[in-house]
Every structure is written in C-alpha cells, then in structure tokens.
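Minutes, project check-in

Agenda point 3 was the complex the collaborators sent over. CS summarized: two entities, 226 residues total, and the question is how they sit relative to each other. Sequences were read into the notes so everyone works from the same version.
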Amino acid sequence: QKEVEQNSGPLSVPEGAIASLNCTYSDRGSQSFFWYRQYSGKSPELIMSIYSNGDKEDGRFTAQLNKASQYVSLLIRDSQPSDSATYLCAVSGLTGGSQGNLIFGKGTKLSVKP
Amino acid sequence: DTAVSQTPKYLVTQMGNDKSIKCEQNLGHDTMYWYKQDSKKFLKIMFSYNNKELIINETVPNRFSPKSPDKAHLNLHINSLELGDSAVYFCASRGTATYEQYFGPGTRLTVT
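CS then shared the predicted structure for the full assembly.
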C-alpha cells in the first residue's frame, strides 16, 4: 500500500520564524511531489511542486526533495499569521492507471502566532 | 474566471435519497477527479476520468457513479445515500504536461 506520512501537528511557530514541514513516502518510484495549503473550510491550493532532488524556491516557500531518503519538506520563511493552515503533502503515482493519481498525506496543521 | 467550479456548495439530504454533484473546469484539462475528504480531513481519491474514459476507480461503493458528458464536466451521482457518505467532496482537474491538480471549492454533503 502506497503511503504518504506527515506529522499531524499542530506545529506552532512565532511570527517571523521559519516553519518546517516534513513528509515521507513509501513508493520509491514516485516522480512528482506537491505541497498544498488548505485553509479551514476551503479547498486545497497548490503552492509548490518539485520533481528532482534538491531545493526549489518560490518566494517565502522552499521545497526540498531527497529521493534516496524518500523525504520531502516545505520551509516557510518569515512565517505570517496568514500562513496558518493545514499543509498537505501529495505524491504522484508511478505507472499505469495510477500515473498522475495523487496520494495525499493527512496534513500538518500549522499555527503562526503573532 | 473560476477554473474549477462545483455545485451545489452545500447539500443536506436524508438517508436513502439520490443526489448529484456537478463539476466543471475551464482550464482545458484532459483529466478530472473526484475526492472525498472525511471528518478527519483525510483526502482520498474516488475516481478519475481522462477524455471521457474512467481510468482509475478506487474501492468506493457502486452507489457512487461518475458521469462525464464532455471533457470539461465530471458529475458525481450518489444513490441510496448513507450517513457515512457525509463528507466534503472535491472535484479536481489536471492537464497533460504535469501532474499538478487544481481543486474546486468543494461540496459539503450532510446526510441525516
């Protein structure tokens, strides 16, 4: 069974700090990795995608991928109260009918305190 | 301007009824999905459609049936609703170039 694991939190950080969110996945052949942000009562919103090992930066967000360790992380610099949300890690299936199918972790709830 | 839209936003109904949820995307995407998010917020895929053809079908009850009249629409029909069907249902779509999926606003279904 393909799985994506995240610490459910809540993760609490002070405003201005760096928030670090982590995710591990079981399918070694996975190729595509995503971070979604979901505010309470809203739909998941894609904030980062990463496909190769290393870091990918977009504004205050940095996604990190280590395929050897089957580990994906999201760093949020200068955290703001508006970043308070649940962050979902998603991994794309490998082949056949599951190709493109996203498997989601259960999400990490982030709370940024003013 | 809405990329992926769903109707209705809220749906309250009684056990045993049949209901439908509609989804439309204007992104020109080829693949559309239905997800269920339960009370514990776990998001799980139910179906996907690619060019009007079902390509994956996770282990959902056959009371749930996706219907796609064209590439831009994927509706979800649910027969004989049960209490356990209460959840938020999200529609999503993606193009062919990447595996990035974009979600609709969700439909909160409450079965009483």
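Noted in discussion: Residues 77 and 110 of chain A are 13 Å apart (CA to CA).
Follow-up: revisit at the next meeting once the mutant set is ready.
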